[in-house]
Amino acid sequence: MSARLKSLVVEDFRSIRGTQRLSLDASTVLIHGPNGTGKTSLLSAIEFGLTGAVASLGRFDPGYLEHLPHKKSPNGRCRVSVEVDGLPSSSAEVAADGKQVLGNGLLSGDLVRFFTERCYLPQAALGRLLEIYEHQDSRRSDSPLTRFVKELLGLEALDALIDGLHASGHVRRLRERAPNFWSARSGAAGLAAQVKTAEGAAAALGQTVADLEAQLRDELGRFAVPTDEIDPNALKPLIDREIGRIEDRLSALALRRRDLAAADAQLKAASQADGGQRDAAEAASTAAQSALSKWQGGPGADLQNLFAAIGKRLPGIAVRAADPAAVHASATAAVETEVQRLQGIALQTAEDDKALSDVEEAIRQGTSRLASIDSELERDHGANQELAQALTAISSHIQGEVCPVCSRDFSEISDIPLAAHVSEEVQKLIAAAGRVQALMRDRSSTSAAVLNAQRHQRDLTARRVSDDQRDRNKLDLAQFTEWKTALAALAEAASQGSRFQREASTAAGQLSILTTQQAGVRGLRAELVQHAQVIGVAVPTADEPLQAASARLMSEVQRQEETLRTALSQHRHILGRFAELRQSRGEHQEAVAKLADTAAIQATRSKQREESERRIAVAKDLVNRAQALRTEKVRQVFNDELNAVWSELFIRLAPEEEFVPEFALPLSGNGAVEAVLETRYRSGGRGGNPRAMLSAGNLNTAALTLFMALNLSVKPVLPWLIIDDPVQSMDDVHIAQFAALLRTLKREGRQVILAVHDRQLFDYLALELSPTFNGDRLITIELGRSADGMTTAPWTPRVFEPDKAIAA
Length: 808
Hints:
The structure is a single chain. By secondary structure, this protein is an alpha/beta fold. The chain has a domain at 347-476: Helix Hairpins (Orthogonal Bundle), CATH 1.10.287. The chain is 64% helix and 10% strand. It has helices at 39-51, 55-58, 110-119, 123-134, 144-153, 155-164, 179-221, 232-273, 277-297, 299-313, 324-379, 385-395, 418-462, 467-489, 491-517, 522-535, 546-653, 690-693, 696-712, 732-747, 759-768, 804-807; strands spanning 4-13, 16-23, 28-32, 78-85, 91-96, 101-102, 120-121, 659-664, 676-681, 720-724, 751-756, 777-782, 784-785, 791-792, 795-799. Helix 11 packs antiparallel against helix 14 (467-489) and helix 16 packs across helix 17.
C-alpha cells in the first residue's frame, strides 16, 4: 500500500486560530515557526484527523479534549480535515467541542496503532523513550524496557494464548472438560475397522472414475465441447460430427496449399527478373519501419504520455498529430504561456494582499484617530467664542473688586484681582475655541481618508482570489513547471520522431512504386489477400513483400493442418475413453452403496470423535505456532533485524561514538523474555547500559534512531515519518548526518514531515532536501501570527529545476 498525505485543513485547533488550508502533496514537508505559533499543534492536527484522537496528549492528560478547541473559537469547536491518496478512504473530517469527538478519523484498527507507534514522534514521546532507557523499578518483576519489548511484539497475548491452551497438550487433561470425547473415542476403533475395507474399494473405484472424467474433461475442453456433465451417450454424436468437420477442413486446406505453392513459384520467377531493385526497396522500408517502431516504443511512448497528460489540461493541443516535433512546439508554447499566466496571477495576488493589508492598517489608524479627536472634542464642549467676547466687553466696566454683574465683592473668595481673573478666563476660552476648530478640521480630513480607504478595501476584497483557488494555482504552477522541464528534456526525441516518420513514409512510397511496376504479379496480391481471408490471418499490407506474404500463408496452412490432424487423433481417442468410463461408473456405484450401508451405523460417533480430534489438533498446532512465533520474533526482529537497523541509523548520526546501543535478549525464546539495553564496542566486546556509556546528546540520538528503526523494521504500511523538532540537542555533525538520512528515506519512498524551530536550521534542511529530479517536490510552511492574533501559515511548493549552467 503506497499512501501519501495530500492536504490538511485546520480550524481553531489548539494554538492555531482561524482556518488554515495546507497542501502536504510532496515527498518532504518542512514546517518552521517561532515558539507558540503552532508547530506541535499542526502535527497534532494531522494525528487527530488520521486517528480521531491525540494519543501524544492523552498519555499525560486524560481530559485533553477540553483543551483542543482554541480559547477564542467563535463556536467553541475545532475542526480538522485530512486528505490521503492510496488508502481505501481518501478523506475524513473530525471535530471536537471540548467534551467529545465528532466524526471518525481516516485510519482504523491496526493502522491507528501503526501510525502512533511507528510514524509520529512528538517531542514529549522522545523524552518518554529516554525515560524507558534509564528508569528501572526494582519493585516490579519486569523492567520498563521488558514491558516495552513485550508490548511491541505482542508477547503478552502469545503468553496468554499458550497458557489458555495448556489442556490440549495431553488427552487426559480433557477427561473432565470433554466427556463426550471419551465416549466417541472408546467405540470408534471397532466401527472404523468395519468401514475400512468398503472405503478402500469405493475410494479406488472413485479415483478411477475421477481420473477418467478429468482426462475426458481436459480433452473435451480443448475442443469447446460441453463438459458440465460427462455423459458418453450424449457426447458421442457431438464427437462424431466434430470428426466429420475436421476431415472436411483438412481437404479444403490441401487444396489451399496447392494454390499457394503455385503462387510462390510464380513470385520466385518474377523476383529473379527485377534485378534485385525491389529487394533493396523492401530492405530500406523494413529498416525505416523498425527504427520508427523502436522510437515509438521508447521516447515516442514517453512523449505521447506527456502530450496526453498536457492535453487533458489544455484541450487545444492536438496530441496525436502526425508530426511529433510540431506537437512538441505547440505543447511547449502552450505550457510556457500557462506558466507565465499562473506566475502573473501569483504576483498580482501577492500585490493585492499587501495592498489590502496596508489599507486595513490605514483604516484601523484612521478609526483610532477619529476616536481620539471625538474624545478631545467632548472635553472641550464648553468652549464658546461668543462668551469670551461678552466677558471682554464687561471687563471695561470693572471698577475695583466688585462684580458689575452680581455686585459681589470678589476679594472675599480670592486674592487675585477681579480684572486679572476675568482676563485669564477670556484667554482660556479663546485658546479652547481655537483648538476645537483645529480638531474639527482634522476630523473632517481624517473621516474623508477613512471613507476612501474603505472604498479601496471593498474593491480589493471583491477581486481577492479565494483560498481554494490560490491553492489550486500553486499546485497548477508546480505541475506546469514540471511539464515544461519534461518537454525540454524530450525536445530531441520529438525531432527524431518526425525524422523517422518521414523516412518510413518515403521508403514505403518507393516500395509501393516498385510493386505497382510489376504488372505480372499484380493479380497475385489480390489472390493472396483472398487466401489470407479464408485461412483467417492478417491480409498482406501494401508494403509487405509478396514472397514473404506467400511464405507466411503457407506456414499458417501447414500449422493448421498439423493442428487438425492432432485434434482428429484426440477425438478418436475420446471415443475409446467413453467405453471405459461407462464400466467404471457402474462398479463405483455398487461400491458406494455398500460403503453407505456400513458407514451409516458409525456416522454420529465418528463425527463426534473426528471433531474432537480436529479441535485438539488445532489447539496443539496453535500452541506450537505461538511458541514458534514468539521464538522467531524475539530472535529475528530484535537480534537480526531491529538491532541491525538501529545500529546503522545510530552510526550514521553519531559516526564518532565508539559505543553503539542495542537490545540484549536471551538466545532461547521458549521461556519468559527479559529485555535489557546494552552497548557494543565497535572494535569488539560489549559495554554497559547506554545511560552509563553515552553522553546526553547521544542518548537523545539513540532514542530518535530507535523510533526510526521501528518504522524501517517492518513493511511500510503507512510510509510516513512525522517528527516534531528532533534536532534541538544535536550538534552540526549530527544534523548533517540526519539530513543525509532523511534524503535516503525520501528516495526509498518515505514521506517526511519535519517541524523545526531554528530559522538557520530550517533554511539548511530546505536546501539539503530540495528536489533532485523531475516529479520530486518539497513544500515549506512558515507559521506566524498577524497583528490581530490570527494564525498565518503560507506554504510554498518547490519543484526540480535543472542546472542550466551544467547542462550548457
